[in-house]
Amino acid sequence: MGMQTLERESLQAGCIASTRRFFPGGKLSKKRWKDALAEIGREFQPFASKYRALGWQEALGSSGTHKAISEICATMKLSKGAITAEALPQLRDELLKAKKIDDIQLPGLSSDRRPIIAGGILVLEAAFQALGLQKLLVSKAAMREGILYDIVGRAGENDLRRPRAGDRTVTAGAGAGAMETGCRRCPHAGLGCAPA
Question: The pTM is what?
Fold first, then answer.
């Protein structure tokens, strides 16, 4: 299979858009969180059962927000850098101790991520619940590196645009503020997996 995409979906549920949409005025509350989690969860429903049926061998995240949440998990000693189903509710509870986004104090959270971290944790919690994820590993490379790999490969025999047996693909263009989910073996996707 190589890097061939088995399934792919893209949701407009990024951390910036979700923070603005569900926490207007920077106000945080358990009720807002619960309502937002249910709404984002519904966005996963059209394809969640298909992904659950495929099974998960490995799930990878590559966004800056995934990396920030991973760092928080490690700093809080909830994991050794992976994002886990057990860690997310603990992060959420710690985050919701603040009543306003400006007051969020999560260990390991950089000040530039504070304004958007609520939406990032929210979307990940919804994804974990809808897709049945237990653990998300975080790639050191981001989607942009995967795109660069694709561009460099076009200069030679590794041209990913040439159709051939065992064709390799790079999926780009999730768009700003999108969360891409996919069942793939490529670590350069927003959130990917290799089937069990």
Answer: 0.73
